Amino acid sequence: MSKKYYFGGLIATVCAFVIMAPAQAFYIEIPQILKDAIQSLKSSVRAQEAGELQPAPPSVVPDEPVLQPIQIEQPIDKPAPEQPVSSDAVQPPANNPPMNFQPQPMQSGQPNQPGPNNQQMLKDLKRGASDVTRQLKQFETLIAKFEKKGVVVSADIKTKIEELRALITKFQSITSVEEAQDLSMDDLYSKMRDLEEERRNLEQMDNILREMKRIESSIKTFEKQVAKLAKQKMAVPMEITDNLAKVKAVIMEIKAGNMANAEDIFELVQNLDENRGQMEMLARWPQTLKEMDRQMRSLNTELKRAKTTTARLAKKDIDVSSIYTQFESAIAKLKETRDAAKSKIQENAEDAFDLAQNDFFGQMDDVMESQRIIMTMGNFGQFQTDFTRQTNQAAQQIKALKKKKIDVADLEDLLAQAKAKGAEVKVLFKAKPLDVDIVIEALNEVENLSQEFDQKVSELTGIEVDMPWEKGPQQFQQIQVSPNLDKWIPKQAQPAVSGSTGNGGGQTCNVNGVELPGAC
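The structure assignment produced for this chain is given below.
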């Protein structure tokens, strides 16, 4: 069965935010042409009423016609005799037009006779009303889209649509200017404003559901990768599996229309992002294990070389067997550490990585120190070449750091000590007979100074050698959350109110004006 979402009122706290509308967005609003037409028609009616209340202007036409003497026709060839003019008679002005007693036609714009302007207003009224009808059809199409997704739109919204449609039908039926006087703009404004808020509410919920779908897709990918690691018998921290379960539960609640715990999704996704670092380490454990195996093979090769050199030196009465034994024991211990880490990864990933970092890779320089001493005793000429190259590189590093205004006093002191000790080793090697113990002690000091120099450089530059699990492409992608989601999701649920229902025993919970199935 598809999920059902119930919406009835308005999400007041959410609708206050501006929503980024999709490309084909529309708004339920009164068209300007309809506003202008209604205002003009009402003004016309008021003007006519005002005109009827004013006193009639004096008429130039007398109430009774004045009888004039009958003129007797005169022959054409004889002029009419002049009439005697009495000084007492009132003469009409010479330019007065003759009186006309024919009834005058009614001027346009008079009651029941809409003139050209009023006729245009009535046409505009119908055109604006048709535009509102179009908006209602668009809204009904939007509602149908939500219902197809499983959203059950409340009957209240549909009732408001029908009420507005009935009002618009009344507007469209107007045929005279006088009828416009009864139009209620307040009612029209109120109904359209309510429907626009309902439209925003549905559009906003669509944004939330779309964002949940995207986050859910990322969570599924994350979950598959976690399952893959578990299949490889790696100990996935319980915290991560718990966070995954919580995020999925909140998403299901939101998709079901329950916003009570919706705000938790921000913290839960952030927790998963923090867990992502641990998961990256686990995902890179195979390459870490490969690196440990590679270094073990390299050490075993060096151990064989050291054994050969030790035997050769013994023939020259130079005994480095104790150094060889130390080297051999260190390699054996590294192998034990590697095996322990491989076993720990199935129980406690953190312990496994601690072993790998501190007791394996962290001990590599000390282990190789024994190898270098044996090789130096077997080939002092190579030692001199390597030592000169390394001291030159150290001098270049100091020079580069000086240019960056970094205090290199400690580095210069360590380099000076290393050079002095190297010169001392050279003298000791030339001594006859060769005091092996003193030479080995001096070589150990050179190795220690070299390690101390490298550590100081790392401290000053902040550059450290990356561990194997810190290398490679990112495998767990960050779960992105739209920056608008905190605007769409209300910060706090409104107090619950009882409502009529749809399912779940007839109970619903109203959260921010949205009717949700079930008890609050």
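Interim note for the steering committee: Residues 5-49+112-206 form one domain. The two ends are 23 Å apart (CA to CA).
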